[in-house]
Amino acid sequence: MSIINNINKAFDHRIRLGIMSILMVNEYADFNMLKELLDVTDGNLASHTKALENVEYIKVEKQFIGRKPNTRYSTTKLGALEFKKHIDALEKLINKQ
């Protein structure tokens, strides 16, 4: 078995890795919080959250706070499981050296 078997392609971009890292330690994060913490553009963040949503690793909730739209994200059970497997695989890879 290859030591990179559990490295997940969905997390191979630093922004997606950042999104998942933030969501793993917070119950949820809204668009602006992710944008600020990751220091990315709206379009960049939107495309990466969409990619994670498409593989069902994050859940998206849209709501209004007052008159302002608010989009918040949280991990799904599948997303949390896959991210943990990914991190474990990276640790194994690093520790092999």
UniProtKB/TrEMBL annotation:
InterPro entries: WH-like_DNA-bd_sf, WH_DNA-bd_dom, WH_DNA-bd_sf
Family annotation (SUPFAM superfamilies): Winged helix' DNA-binding domain
Source domain of life: Bacteria
Pfam families referenced in this protein's UniProt entry, alphabetically: HTH_34 (PF13601)
Signal sequence bounds: none
Domain Winged helix DNA-binding positions: 15-94
Cross-referenced PANTHER family: BSL7504 PROTEIN (PTHR37318)
Protein name according to UniProt: Transcriptional regulator
Organism taxonomic ancestry: Bacteria, Pseudomonadati, Bacteroidota, Flavobacteriia, Flavobacteriales
